[in-house]
Amino acid sequence: MIQFEDIQIQLIDMPPITADYSAGGQIGTYRHCDLIAVVIDLSADLAEQVDICMDYLESKNLLIDDQAGASDEHSNVLGTKAFCICTKVDIAKPNALQNLKKLCKRPFEFVEISAKTGTGLEELSRMLFKLLGIIRIYTKPPGEKPDLGEPFTLPTGSTVMDLASTIHRELAEKLKFARIWGTGVYDGQNTQRNHVLNDKDIIELHFS
Predict the structure, then answer these.
(1) Is pLDDT of 208 > 60?
(2) Closest by CA position to 100, among listed 57, 149, 54, 34
């Protein structure tokens, strides 16, 4: 798990891919995860690593491209968003990142890190949060203080009703209205089921 402010994000460390080998079950994991991180060693042969990783991902149709979105009209997964983690920045060759960007033909975002020195680890967690496309929502019972310790995480664009359904699907049908503290509203403003939520909004749900 990697910590970003007040939430944890799960990372799954997959076996390395070579030109001749990939472990069983990897395709299913890549196809159903939320985000693929392509890990490139900046101190090693960049072209070889890029060729192997991209040949594998593209041949298995695992990446979102300009023609295909993340899923089709039947919700079948077509591809996954990806970015690049550039490791060993502390011993990287000069201009390694610039050379890597030239080799990579996809519009990835890149983050440089060093497990040895800790460089870039905070930036990595911020990038994960951004690329996952999620928001944090805090809840409060009527008349009480909000719970700021463990926010609910929802996809960007989620509504008050989406939050209620996440908390309890059956109870959500009895949702009457909500009060909100956050972005673009005044404190305690009444809002409806279809109100679109923003990161770090505080919501007080009222049921009939």
Answers:
(1) yes
(2) 54
> pLDDT tens digit string along 116-132?
999 999 999 999 999 99
Which of 167, 163, 169 has the alpha carbon at shortest distance from 197?
A: 163
Report residue 4 as tokens. Answer: 């970003």
Q: What angle do CA 149, 128, 57 make, to 5 degrees?
A: 145
- In this structure, the strands spanning 82-87 and 201-207 are unpaired
Residue ranges in 13-155 assigned as alpha helix (H):
26-32, 46-59, 96-103, 121-132
Residue 134 burial (CB count, 10 A): 20
Q: What is d(CA 140, CA 181) in angstroms, rounded to the nearest whole number? A: 10
C-alpha distances in angstroms, 88 versus 114, 140, 144?
5, 44, 48
98's tokens: 């610039």
Fold of 2-132: Rossmann fold (3.40.50)
The architecture of the domain spanning 134-207 is Roll (3.10)
CA-CA distance, 150 to 64, in Å (whole number)? 31
Residue with tokens 């996954």: 80
As a whole number, the mean pLDDT across the chain is 91
Listed by start position, the domains of the chain span 2-132, 134-207
